[in-house]
Amino acid sequence: MNFSVKESLVLKKLRSGQVATCFKVNIVDPRSAEIAAMSGFDCVWTCMEHVGNDWSTIGQQVLAAKAHGADLLCRVARGSYSDYVKPFELDASGIMVPHVMDAEDAESIVRMTRFPPQGRRAVDGGNADAAYCGVPFVDYLRDSNLQKFVVLQIEDPESAECLEAIAAVKGYDILFFGPGDFGVAIGDPGNPENPRLREVRRKIPELAAKYGKFAGTVCNPHNYQSLVDEGYRFLSMGADVVGLSQYCQAMVREMKIFGSAGGGDGKEDGAGDDDKRGGQLRQEGGV
Question: Do residues 287 and 238 touch, judged by C-beta distance below 8 A?
């Protein structure tokens, strides 16, 4: 019996001109990923850069997303080629590489994550992405390059200076703007209206289209359509920790209002209130 490499829902939608949606999970329990997938998101974004996931957890999150037809995107920790290819071998549909600094960095990532002739990715074939040797070998090499996507994050002013050179590198799929770290790096954290930040956000979809890539970033319900109008097609909205925190805080506020919560003076501490600068990033789930 022969099997095939899993078709990526994200790539299918992007290649047909549609918008692909994503939801970020920081909670390591795979049920969080499953809830996002069963709710209708095209992709679930998990993280090895900032979250204490291990490879076993990533594998369970992949299965949880696949059970409802969604892709699993893993933001990797910067490291060796093994850190980049293991999510693929667990059958994640995509990887996201943070803080890509220049074209040489982008070329190195492509070389580690694509099979020849696009790169020099190491071959195994005995893992979930090849159906444990069930996918014919040549098909596995070809279709992995076609159905697994690579996302490069632009998060630093240094990478913004060589943005066109990064966009021109062949072999990856999505150029993704991370406004959180970018704003911190330029000394204006949490301000989506900073002129330097807005200029980079504007340029990314233009250069992505010019060089055959797709543009991605984080969004919220209020700026979703404006980002689509700017040319963004891969959009991540929300995060499990944001939703759970807001729900819990709302329940506590309601209990205080109805006099059902003991202790304290009944005053809200403001923990659930969004300040002008940080609120948007919290809605978007951060990057």
Answer: no
